[in-house]
Amino acid sequence: MPRSLPVVAIIVFAALILALNAMFIVRQDRQAIVLRFGEYTRVINPPGRDEPGLYFKLPFVENVIVYDRRNLGTQIEGEAFVASDQERLIVDAIVRWQIVDARRFYQSAISEEGGASRLNTFTEAAMRRALGSATSNDIISGRRAALMQAIEADLNGSAAPELGVRVIDVRIRQADLPNETREGVYARMRSERQQVAGRIRAEGERDATIIRATAQQEAERTRGEGEAERARIFARAYGRDPEFAAFYRSMRAYEQSIEAGTPIVVPPDSDFFRYMQRRRG
């Protein structure tokens, strides 16, 4: 009996090794492909299916490669690109992507690190195509959002099918000029902006002058019409009562010509004071 204990222990140990080698767990946030002698056999828990759990494989015959099921990120830092205006730019970008075809991904990249490296190569080529057709002003500020969408569409049309991935988002985090050329380009950009501002101000002044001239013409016309109407009213009033009209004109003349404390020297029988010479007047 004691002699059989080592044999039993060896059998149990071997069975345990086989069992451990035959079982594997696929987590909720992972996907796995099963290879038999290096050849693809099946995929477990890919995006779009809910298949996490405990699985079995043939010991020592099949092996399992696990990939992330979540969104992954890769960065491009300090890459130099030449814009359409021949300005050299230093660009930092980030790409968010997901493995959607584990079989194709394994065949083209094998590991996640290999896939990220290949995707970086595709991304740099797509960025050169997109940024090479835009000016430095567009890349730095003007059309950055449109350029990022163009790069994303380019990757999904070329790299994604080949790698078995889907590019979710491309972000240009920073695009700047090299230190040796930055100040000169910024000076040129400021000069261009000042020219645009000067043109806009000149157009505004021109429009304001036209508006003021038009308003003044309208005011003069309205004032002339008012004076003409006033003259017609006075003429009608004077025609109805000439004596009152003469009296009114004299009162208006007194009001406009005589200020408080102002001495006036005129003959007492002057026609200017004829209404003051008569009690009834």
Explained architecture:
With 281 residues, the chain is α+β, with helices and mostly antiparallel strands. The protein folds into 3 domains: 4-68, no CATH class; 72-180, Tetrahydropterin Synthase, Chain A (2-Layer Sandwich); 239-273, no CATH class. It has 8 helices and 8 strands; from the N terminus they run H-E-E-E-E-E-E-E-H-H-H-H-H-E-H-H. The chain has helices at 4-22, 102-108, 112-131, 136-142, 144-157, 159-163, 179-240, 242-257, and strands at 23-26, 30-36, 39-44, 53-56, 62-68, 72-82, 88-99, 165-176. Strands 3-2-5 form a 3-stranded antiparallel sheet, with no helix packed on it. Strands 6-7-8 form a 3-stranded antiparallel sheet. A hairpin with a 2-residue loop joins strand 2 and strand 3 (39-44). Helix 3 crosses helix 5 and helix 7 crosses helix 8 (242-257). It is rod-shaped. It starts with a helix and ends in a 24-residue tail after the last helix.
Low-confidence region ranges: none
Strand order of the largest sheet: 3-2-5
Judged by helices, strands and strand pairing, the structural class is alpha+beta
- Please tell me the CATH architecture of the largest domain by its name: 2-Layer Sandwich
The CATH class of the largest domain, by name, is: Alpha Beta
In N-to-C order, the SSE pattern is HEEEEEEEHHHHHEHH
> How large is the count of helical segments?
8
- The structural domain count equals 3
- Rg from alpha-carbon coordinates: 47 Å
Cα-to-Cα separation, first versus last residue: 159 Å
Tell me, rounded to a whole number, the average pLDDT. 83
CATH topology of the largest domain: Tetrahydropterin Synthase, Chain A
- So, the CATH homologous superfamily of the largest domain? Band 7 domain
Which percent band covers the strand fraction? 15-25%
Most strands sheet? 3 strands, antiparallel
Describe the global form: rod-shaped
Question: Helix fraction?
Answer: 40-55%
Could you tell me the number of beta strands?
8
